User: Fold this.
Amino acid sequence: MDFAFDNSFHDSMEGFYAPAEAAKPSAPKLLLFNHDLAQRLGIDVGCASDEQLARIFSGEEMPGGANPLALAYAGHQFGHFSPQLGDGRALLLGEVVAPDGARFDVQLKGSGPTPFSRNGDGKAAIGPVLREYLMSEAMAALGVPTTRSLAAVATGDRVQREQAHPGAVLTRIASSHIRVGTFQFFAAHFGADHVVQLSDYVIRRHFPDLADTANPHLALLNRVIGLQCELVACWLGIGFIHGVMNTDNVAVSGETIDYGPCAFMDRFSVNTVFSSIDANGRYAYGRQPQILHWNMARFAEALLPAIHAVDPDGVETAKDLVNEIPERFRAVWHQLVRAKLGLLEDAPDASLIDSLFAALEDNGVDFTSFFRALAMLLRGEGAMLEKLLPTPDAMAPWIALWWEHIEREALSPLEIADAMDGVNPVYVPRNHLVEAALGAAEGGDMAPFLELLEVVRHPYDERPVWALFAGPAPAEFGPYKTFCGT
Ligand code: AMP
Ligand code: MG
Assistant:
């Protein structure tokens, strides 16, 4: 099989990666293959059998034109700098250029040790592989920038974590795997020339419109800040908590990357944390904008040698860009919340938004259902909202205020309700559903997983047969904890 690879990173960035090979799986078996995505990428698997696909997407057989390599990177993990991380359990096979001209990395995750594995085994267990597949496909369907999942293959080997688990390999597709931590690695160990080379590569690959600006590295900082503000606003808008916003898990492309202990919250609470390793709540739901700010300050630091090399005055501008992040984020976030509330023309003051989140928190309201219930209210049906509230008039003052704004809109309430349903999902991968699906899959029954995958691929498309997928976890579920565990 030949993917028509065009490996720009391998060919032009020698010294920024280490060549590596995949381990041989003992009995690869195809679990999932994303034919729609393969088509979008222009990867022609023709009439390949499942056995052939399993060999390729487990690393047993290298497709023609692959240049397998592990990327070097560093990163701040929970606020502390680790100078040497890198792809310890991932192998970049190469890049494909889709029919529309977009370039994508094709990467195996869990295919065995690399020069960056340190003490790790380079492997992945089936649970986290399927979790990433499900979460990333749900995010894509929700319209959130994200890496995608092309295939999941069981290796037939056991992977030792707290217990032994069946091993698996995920094929991840990303517009690139270059992270804030990639810049940090070359800034820390090599200095300005390497940072300039990396920045130039990123600009050529992702943002060619910046190449002709006065200081392209400064323009890159500005662009990445903008993309990260949009990304984190998307996360907040769907109740998503990434869980490990370390700088090595922040892609400069602006895609959600490295799905580990991430999860969606049911009841709204800004302090929600699911990850077992986030004891201090550094990456809690409501802290994500502050962490975005902190991470972009680290990105600016890593870029400074390049910014300074073009123009020493650029350093002051970089500081300003970083200092303006809270304001910039708030503007993006408020615009997103307005759309969720059906306020398409009217720009309410921030107090409508602040008081909404305070009321959702006070009343423990299910975040995803709430916005669909508001749209039902516009259709004259209050039952759904009532069911979400502890008492029928729990949010009456806020609802009255919101109605005043709705009445100022040009569209009719029914039209606004339809617009709201286009941006507020019915279905997200709720924790209790994810756990049940993964539990069954680990025991060999993929049916619940496949059904959930189908549901979350249609997040806005309400269907009566999927009613059980729409509500919060039953009271006896939880408290919920997630693990990195790949
Ligand atoms: P992550 O949890 O994905 O942010 O990973 C943090 C770092 O640990 C990265 O450099 C990974 O490549 C590395 N890592 C995580 N799990 C393993 C593993 N099983 N084997 C080798 N390296 C790993
Ligand atoms: Mg990572």
In short: Residues 248-249, 258 surround magnesium ion (ligand 2) (CB under 6 Å). The first strand starts at residue 17 and ends at 19.
